[in-house]
Write a structure and sequence with these properties.
By secondary structure, the protein is mainly alpha-helical. It is 72% helix and 4% strand. It contains nine helices and two strands. It has helices at residues 8-20, 24-32, 36-55, 59-72, 77-89, 93-106, 111-123, 127-140, 145-166, and strands spanning 172-175, 178-181. The protein has a two-stranded antiparallel ribbon with strand order 1-2. Strand 1 and strand 2 (178-181) form a beta hairpin. Helix 1 packs antiparallel against helix 2 and helix 6 packs antiparallel against helix 7. The longest helix has 22 residues, at 145-166. It is elongated and about 65 Å long.
């Protein structure tokens, strides 16, 4: 850039590398000297690249891009949601749930955050919490098929858990670690 200011591309490369290496000092140093408009631009660029990578199934790369976007601008609820989906795809349901909750906090009227939280909750075996997230999302968007589907899955999980607690050996069948009571 002009007068020795780093370009958006240089900032982006430096922060992405720092994020990948979890180098918080570099991140802070890089961000300290950047005007907010440039930061916002870098965040948008990282988000776009992350979205493209996610669509191609390149979840680790997308995760780095979304993390870069959040480092530059943590106020965008969609990026938290996208990173949640990414983390879930990478088998990191705990982190996915945290990001989904961050998205909900920033945009409590946006149904997709609740969808992400419910999906992550199901992965973690949190049936009743997932039912609650899905319900909250459906209150905002009653005809959302994805939310309805995740609510069904969460309710099923709650039923299975209650059933498994009640089951005794002779009257139950094992379905992949969950005991289901046989009808007599």
């Amino acid at each position: 850039g002009e007068d020795g200011e780093p370009s958006a591309q240089q900032i982006y490369e430096t922060t992405t590398a720092a994020i990948r290496d979890n180098d918080t000092e570099t991140i802070s140093a890089v961000l300290a000297g950047i005007d907010p408009a440039t930061l916002k631009l870098a965040a948008e660029k990282s988000r776009e690249i992350g979205n493209d990578m996610f669509k191609r199934g390149q979840f680790q790369g997308a995760l780095e891009q979304y993390t870069g976007a959040l480092t530059a601008d943590s106020s965008v609820h969609q990026v938290w949601s996208n990173r949640s989906a990414c983390l879930l795809a990478l088998g990191r349901a705990d982190d996915a749930l945290s990001d989904a909750k961050a998205s909900i906090q920033l945009a409590p009227r946006w149904p997709k955050g609740y969808f992400r939280a419910a999906k992550a909750g199901i992965e973690l075996g949190l049936g009743s919490e997932s039912v609650e997230f899905a319900r909250q999302g459906l209150e905002l968007e009653p005809n959302n098929k994805a939310l309805a589907g995740v609510l069904g899955a969460a309710r099923e999980m709650v039923c299975l858990l209650y059933t498994s607690d009640a089951a005794d050996e002779e009257d139950s069948v094992d379905l992949g670690g969950r005991r289901i009571i046989k009808k007599k």
